[in-house]
Design brief:
Number of helices: 5
Number of domains: 1
Largest sheet: 5 strands, mixed
Organism: Streptomyces filamentosus NRRL 15998
Strand order of the largest sheet: 1-2-3-4-5
Structural class: alpha/beta
Order of helices and strands: HEEHEHEHEH
Protein name: Anti-sigma factor antagonist
Family: Belongs to the anti-sigma-factor antagonist family.
Strand content: 15-25%
Distance between the termini: 85 Å
CATH architecture: 2-Layer Sandwich
Number of strands: 5
Radius of gyration: 20 Å
Helix content: 25-40%
Shape: globular
GO molecular function, one term: anti-sigma factor antagonist activity
InterPro entries: Anti-sigma_ant, MlaB-like_STAS, STAS_dom, STAS_dom_sf
């Protein structure tokens, strides 16, 4: 029985669309934003949006930069996070490895509270109910 020659599927497909050099969420409300500020001697990273494998890189870079800076506590304000996946948890754990006791998580959104509780992240990282509580836990008044 003769075999049919293989067909190249790509030959019948149109050219792939151009991929933008910067990926952004089509829904502006869910785009990831990280703002930084100093409160007393603590660096506060306020995170908002949906964090997943495609959008968590800025958080990893911010934590890495804070670790390289080497000064003072780092508080990650999670109050604006609507969604997070396992890559986010991994980035936070890597941040804890790099920053040690300098890292605190604060004000987790309801989604983050469920995620943290479900996987037991609060047994590895200090999680406090507010940014002020997180700062007060590491800095004297």
């Amino acid at each position: 029985m003769p075999t049919r020659p293989a067909t190249r599927l790509s030959a019948s497909l149109p050219n792939p669309p151009e991929v933008p050099s910067v990926l952004s969420s089509p829904n502006e409300d869910r785009a990831v934003r990280i703002t930084t500020r100093r409160e007393r001697e603590a660096l506060v990273l306020s995170v908002s949006g949906d964090l997943d494998i495609d959008s968590v890189t800025p958080l990893g870079l911010a934590l890495s930069s804070a670790a390289d800076d080497g000064s003072g506590p780092v508080v990650v304000d999670l109050s604006g996070v609507g969604f997070a996946d396992s890559t986010t948890v991994n980035v936070l754990l890597q941040g804890h490895t790099a920053l040690g006791d300098r890292l605190r998580l604060a004000a987790p959104s309801p989604f983050m509270q469920r995620l943290i509780g479900m996987i037991g992240l609060d047994s590895a990282l200090p999680v406090l109910p507010s940014v002020d509580d997180a700062i007060n836990a590491v800095l004297p008044s």
